[in-house]
Write a structure and sequence with these properties.
The protein is built from eleven helices and 14 strands. By secondary structure, the chain is α/β, with parallel strands linked by helices. It has two domains: about 140 residues, Murein tetrapeptidase LD-carboxypeptidase, N-terminal domain (Rossmann fold); about 140 residues, Glucose Oxidase, domain 1, CATH 3.50.30. α1 links the parallel β1 and β2.
Length: about 300
């Protein structure tokens, strides 16, 4: 995999919206947070102006902002404003040679999972599953720990996630090593059978989800299982599964029943996904998952 260069103070970074258009005020708040990190933030031409357009026009505008950000040699990172839906539609239209020739940080999660996997599969570029400006860095939502998760983009330090950050729970014991891949469960399931599906064989699979009922979680996990995803994984990292308390209890039972006899390590409760704090992780780099104690060690995503 190709690692992008680390960020430095004063670097220009772009904000784009490959999924839903963001709330303007929340995005401005998120931009201010990035500026406090010493970054010069510019927004894509079409971040705000896709509301009301037909789908074909929306897709072309989203695609243009993505291509512009990677083509501009002065841009050192590309950060997504928020999630939503529709990112999958532009994946077949992306010129991945532009991305491969201009490696830089690409950061997002949720619906952006589809592009994280597409970029890795087609460009060999390490991507980043992490909090987004409008949805996670606005004044109402953000926490100091969420802000701090951007620091390794500057320092290049490797990451260790263990019970010091959250009370982790082991569903299946063991040790697994491989590249960290995955993201939002819905997007992983919908990507099956496409050129952009997750490459889980020999790797550590990350899954997270939001506002999906337990029966849907069960159906999507079953789809991945029957597609062979769990036949050759080296471990599963379960991030946040946000739901109302009663439904969350049902989801926990689904996850426990599904993974209790897994022949690979499975650890849950990582604060990764639709939560605060929301920790960022590089996707595509080497990682090691252990259960005694439960811990995920991840290589740096930048060089």
């Amino acid at each position: 995999m190709i690692k992008p260069p680390a960020l430095q103070e004063g670097d220009r970074v772009a904000v784009i919206a490959p999924a839903d258009p963001p709330d303007r005020e929340k995005l401005i708040q998120g931009i201010h947070v990035m500026e406090k990190m010493g970054l010069n933030v510019v927004t894509g031409r079409h971040v705000y102006d896709i509301e009301g357009d037909d789908l074909a026009t929306v897709d072309q505008k989203r695609l243009a902002d993505l291509h512009d950000a990677f083509s501009d040699p002065g841009i050192r990172g590309v950060f997504c404003a928020e999630g939503g839906f529709g990112t999958a539609r532009i994946a077949p239209m992306v010129d991945y040679s532009i991305i491969q020739k201009n490696p830089k940080i690409f950061w997002g999660y949720s619906d952006i999972t589809y592009l994280l996997n597409a970029i890795q599969n087609q460009s060999d570029l390490v991507a980043f599953h992490g909090p987004m400006l409008a949805s996670d860095l606005n004044d109402e939502q953000r926490t100091a720990k969420t802000e701090a998760t951007f620091l390794p983009l500057f320092t290049g330090e490797a990451l260790t996630y263990d019970s010091r950050i959250a009370p982790l729970n082991t569903l299946a014991h063991g040790t697994g090593e491989g590249r960290l891949v995955g993201g939002n469960l819905t997007l992983l399931a919908t990507g099956m059978g496409t050129p952009f599906q997750v490459k889980a064989s020999g790797n550590i699979l990350l899954i997270e989800e939001v506002a999906e009922p337990s029966y849907r979680i069960n159906a999507m996990l079953t789809q991945l299982k029957q597609a062979g995803v769990f036949d050759e994984v080296e471990g599963v990292v379960i991030g946040n599964f946000q739901a109302e308390p009663d439904e969350y209890a049902k989801i926990k039972k689904v996850l426990q029943d599904f993974f209790i006899s897994a022949p690979f390590p499975v650890v849950e409760n990582f604060p990764i996904g639709h939560c605060q704090p929301n920790y960022g992780v590089p996707i595509g780099v080497n990682a090691k998952l252990t259960t005694s104690p439960p811990r995920l060690a991840v290589d740096s995503g930048v060089m």
